[in-house]
Amino acid sequence: MINLKEMKSIPVEMAADIIGKAPQFIRIGLQQQRLPFGIAVMTSSVWSYHISYEQLKNYIGIDRLNEYERTH
Question: Is the pTM of this model over 0.90?
Answer without folding.
Answer: yes
